[in-house]
Specification:
Elements (H helix, E strand, L loop, with lengths): L2 H4 L11 E3 L2 E3 L3 E3 L14 H11 L5 E8 L17 H16 L3 E7 L36 H20 L5 E7 L2 H6 L14 H4 L1 H14 L5 E9 L11 H14 L3 E5 L15 H9 L2 E5 L6 E2 L3 E2 L5 H10 L5 E3 L2 H5 L3 H6 L19
Parallel strand pairs: 3-4, 3-12, 4-5, 5-6, 6-7, 7-8, 8-9, 9-12
Antiparallel strand pairs: 1-2, 10-11
Helix pairs in contact: 2-3, 4-7, 7-8, 8-9
């Protein structure tokens, strides 16, 4: 598939403004969190600010930073992942925010705890055990002890502090990493959460940890500061994993998070066009919007003619299908990941019809921070 074939539909709807609470976006294009690890000792520097600014000044409406770790010893496996705590890191983030705002962009950090995805003995705190709801790794093997209620409270507090730090640094909202088998998602998933207390059992009980995190953050940041959560069915070790088999289960799950105070759902799929449930063409993002009524982001191979992981094309439905779905209000916002790593000006080139000038994503794009 070449670019000239792709663009037979007007892309204008990608560049319509969008507002949620006090957050007004210049376009529907979002840069999702992609771990880059260019922040020595967790402190984002001038190169990180320039990297995000470059996307904001080229038509990206909302930037979601790479995952910033909360203040907990086993939150991260990599000393160069940015922190959302500590004076030096927060000063670095304030400068990132200033630069993005200066060129008309908006920015929220993704905040995370890796949970059992973190390999034991990882830096920067090799002595700290990795934690999860039931001490199980993603394959279901026991590798640690279940989290105590005290540990759960401490982690909720660390998430809340990180959200408050983000607000103080000038960010426009926050996103919780609740996907891909990271800590929050380990509570959601029955294979990693076998608890029998109030944090485990039914699907609704498995939402309790996330609900308490969202409630605590909402109480701390006030009613108008957007809280997003990234969700996925798939896990890092299992692309076929499912949290919900039916729309009814998804609706029960979403209702709990909406009542807790979530505003935005970022629906992580590998291919944005794939139907989520049998008998309907709706994607996961489409179902989430329909069932929650909240702002919904789609993501998954947008702007990639070929997926380096899957060979040429991989059946990509392309921008025509994406725009049609956006026009049909199947979702509100569109996250563009690897295509924006390949070309920081991807959005502006799409807007101006300069498809043939787009620099394609290559695995080498990941090696540098540009």
């Amino acid at each position: 598939m070449n670019h000239s074939q792709q663009n037979t539909v007007s892309t204008a709807s990608l560049f319509q403004p969008y507002t949620i609470h006090n957050l007004s976006l210049q376009s529907r294009i979002v840069m999702p969190a992609m771990a880059r690890a260019f922040s020595p000792n967790g402190i984002p520097g001038a190169d990180v600010a320039a990297y995000y600014r470059r996307r904001a000044e080229n038509g990206v409406g909302l930037i979601i930073t790479e995952g910033a770790v909360i203040d907990h010893p086993s939150a991260s496996s990599e000393p160069k992942l940015p922190h959302m705590f500590g004076e030096a890191a927060l000063a670095g983030w304030a400068e990132v925010v200033r630069q993005v705002h200066e060129v008309g962009g908006k920015i929220i950090p993704q905040i995370l705890h890796m949970g059992m995805v973190r390999p034991a003995g990882s830096e920067p705190h090799p002595e700290a055990p990795s934690i999860g709801p039931s001490g199980l790794d993603l394959a279901g093997n026991p590798v640690g002890e279940p989290m105590t209620e005290e540990e759960i409270s401490n982690v909720i507090m660390a998430f809340t502090d990180a959200a408050m730090n983000a607000k103080r640094a000038g960010f426009d909202g926050i996103e919780l990493h609740g996907a891909h088998g990271f800590l929050i998602d380990e509570f959601f998933w029955e294979h990693t959460n076998t608890r029998t207390d109030r944090y485990g059992g039914s699907l609704l009980k498995r939402t309790r940890f996330a609900v308490e995190v969202i409630q605590a953050i909402r109480a701390a940041v006030g009613p108008d500061f957007p809280i997003a959560i990234r969700l996925s069915q798939w896990k890092m070790n299992d692309y076929s994993a499912k949290l919900f088999e039916t729309p009814e289960q998804l609706e029960e799950f979403l209702s709990a998070l909406v009542q807790a105070g979530a505003d935005i759902f970022h629906c992580s799929t590998r291919r944005f066009w794939e139907p989520e449930f049998v008998g309907s063409p709706l994607s996961l993002a489409g179902w989430v919007k329909k069932l929650s009524g909240k702002t919904t982001l789609t993501v998954g191979s947008v702007g990639l003619d070929r997926d380096p992981a899957e060979g040429d094309a991989a059946g990509n439905e392309g921008l025509d299908d994406l725009v049609k779905r956006l026009d049909n209000q199947e979702f509100d916002l569109v996250a563009v990941g690897r295509a924006l790593l390949g070309d920081p000006a991807w959005a502006v080139k799409i807007r101006e019809g300069r498809m043939n000038e787009i620099q394609p994503f290559t695995p080498e794009s990941v090696a540098t921070l540009y």
